[in-house]
Amino acid sequence: xxxxxxxxxxxxxxxxxxxxxxxxxxxxxxxxxxxxxxxxxxxxxxxxxxxxxxxxxxxxxxxxxxxxxxxxxxxxxxxxxxxxxxxxxxxxxxxxxxxxxxxxxxxxxxxxxxxxxxxxxxxxxxxxxxxxxxxxxxxxxxxxxxxxxxxxxxxxxxxxxxxxxxxxxxxxxxxxxxxxxxxxxxxxxxxxxxxxxxxxxxxxxxxxxxxxxxxxxxxxxxxxxxxxxxxxxxxxxxxxxxxxxxxxxxxxxxxxxxxxxxxxxxxxxxxxxxxxxxxxxxxxxxxxxxxxxxxxxxxxxxxxxxxxxxxxxxxxxxxxxxxxxxxxxxxxxxxxxxxxxxxxxxxxxxxxxxxxxxxxxxxxxxxxxxxxxxxxxxxxxxxxxxxxxxxxxxxxxxxxxxxxxxxxxxxx
Length: 412
What we know:
The protein is of the alpha/beta class. Helix content is 46%, strand content 13%. The strands form 4 sheets. A 7-stranded mixed sheet has the order 2-10-9-8-7-3-4, with helices on both faces. A two-stranded parallel sheet has the order 1-12. Helix 8 links the parallel strand 7 and strand 8. The longest helix has 32 residues. It is globular. The N and C termini lie far apart (55 Å).
């Protein structure tokens, strides 16, 4: 029998975070804790279906006017409009001037990919595979892959995390922007930077924007946690809105996985802000062609849930309350973990845990300490030392804190 035509295909390494979850599931130890998965969990360690989502799902199920016809290629119009509105604000001059457009996508990843495909074809001229793409060091691992697979050849990193002070390396970041070639594309985390949980302050964002404007650098925001980070939609969108107020043309990839708990519905949006309405419409016409050959038409259920919620003042207020519930639990886990580590006298400083924001915390644990946590304590976290604060509960906090103390004390 002839050899398979796929015989030369190498086995790809597993995606780290999903491999971690698989290892956790196979672990039979009763003490095991999963701090790796990037999803919200209740204090009982369970997924949470937002009450407002349950209510809207019932409304959709009872609406006899709905059917399963294809959505337009660019997506559900009321979803797209409302998604861009919460990113840019009700009083956004860009929206009022009709220079905002959007594309419904398969999650935040899909928004990044459509944006990347468009930029590779049309940014600052045709077919710019050599345009440098700058990604923070560290960043969500998919950022590099999305732009690489879209055809960009020059993917670089910019300074972001200062391991020594466990905070933002602002000067390194600004220096990298100063030295970047004009028209380079910078991937910026709108809020709750993944994986560090460390964001620039408004004053630091102003410094970043000033250099980007002067150097003609293009901002591509990734907004995966709006509302989920601080509990305030407006606060978490501050950076994006400031850049718009400064006259930037920009892209903003939005995800509704975290703040609506719609992980498996893959609800995303790419907001496009241009100089004028004509520019935006031409951009959208090209994005429509890209979507047509990628997924052709987006799914409706998740988009309808989000659109219905954002369109109703009553449901919108209820949703904001649900989001604040999640954000407050994360903030509580941060303060509780820090206080326990400090009470134990764990070597080092731990104020960064409460100074960081969002779902993830960059603990500062090194790879050997992480290995100890996994093998000896059955506490699963990323090799970088990143933990999901939602994996902490009132029941496992003491165990996790004591394990971190042990790892830091025993292993340098």
